[in-house]
Amino acid sequence: MRILVATDAWHPQVNGVVRTLTMMADAAKTLGADVSFITPQSFPTVGLPSYPDLRVAIPRPAKIARLIAEAQADCIHIATEGPIGIAVRSYCRKRGLRFTTSFHTRFPEYISARLPIPESWVWAWLRRFHGRSQAVMAATPALAEELRSRGFRNVVLWPRGVDAGLFHPREGADFGLPRPVFLSVGRVAVEKNLEAFLALDLPGTKVVVGDGPARAGLQLAYPDAVFLGARQGEALGQAYAAADVFVFPSKTDTFGLVLLEALGSGVPVAAFPVTGPRDVIGDAPVGVLSDDLQQACLSALKISPQACLEFAASQTWAASARAFIENVTRVWMMDPDRDSARAAPKQARFVA
After folding, report:
1. Which pLDDT score is estimated for 348?
2. b/e map of 180-219 (b: 16 or more CB within 10 Å)?
3. pTM (predicted TM-score)
4. Which end of the chain offers a freer environment for a tag, N or C, measured as fewer CB atoms within 10 Å?
């Protein structure tokens, strides 16, 4: 099966959406699926005033059509609600093609944190965007239930995984800083609620790995914290392994892939009891979820690293890719014209 994924989030961005798509695609190969992408790398881009480190693609409809034809895909998955996602959705609708989508980001909360736009308006637009989808993929049961309660139809699960080859304990990993080390990894932006972590009275050292528009202001406000900037690959794996507790202060993330990366490194989690941490951890003895984040951090120090490793071992990208392919296949099998799609590869009959 050939699957074409349309996404506005792509390298060199470092975030959960990019990691999810790339890891899923790699794992899908072992399951007999070939996943390719339409990304901002194929189009001119412009910067965003609020996000100087991010650029948004300006896709042309003619090139979108050409890239879809060249992919000769059985299915196309629309992963994001940005310009590329909108353009591919328009292509499918004009041709009467069915499609599925995935819900990765809580844009209503993110946008309302910066602009005077009511969350209800953004949710209404998202319902419209996903409204023609044959399957809206959500990472957790709680997120799936929330989307249904907000009027989204055809919501299905697509769980996430962790790369055990990269995120694992490393003997001797150490920042060379006073311990215990409380680590947070992710985009340094207002929606991540990092001040709730940085303002805590904790022993040892607070470390932040990541970059973003809020970094300069937070570094000035919290000079005792250590900001290491963005890290990837082995350097990121080393950072997790050198921590004692992973702190996740966000209240808006739909999943929090970094939670699994920390647990795979044998590092317990401290977080608020909200969607994301609650779905990932549940009642497992691998983290402490509390409205008192300071107490959660201190209590997490007592958690066994071995329990974290055993928990993460069951969360694989192979399982994630299998769920994705099953979601695609279920809808593809309902398409009466699926057999003719291979005979006419210039126009995929089903859009995943």
Report:
1. 46
2. bbbbbbbbbbbbbbbeebbebebeebbbbbbbbbbbeebe
3. 0.82
4. N
